[in-house]
Fold BLOC-1-related complex subunit 7.
Amino acid sequence: MASANWNQETKSRLNDKISGNMNDLGSLARQIVRGSHSSELLAQAAKNFAFQENTINNSLETLKKMDMIKSQLEFQFAAVERR
């Protein structure tokens, strides 16, 4: 009988230890996430991406204008050469 009680007590302690370790692991994971500032970094990356999209669109418009100016200059150059 003493052996059965000892086994039950050991199992109970082991379950308590496992439960405590799992809680500690959860706390550690939450602390790592908080400490890493991953959500702030993700938000900043999204803002930077959105800002870059606007910059790319502005650059595209500028390139289109430059292409038009280039075409006009080529036309004017051809007209000057014909004279």
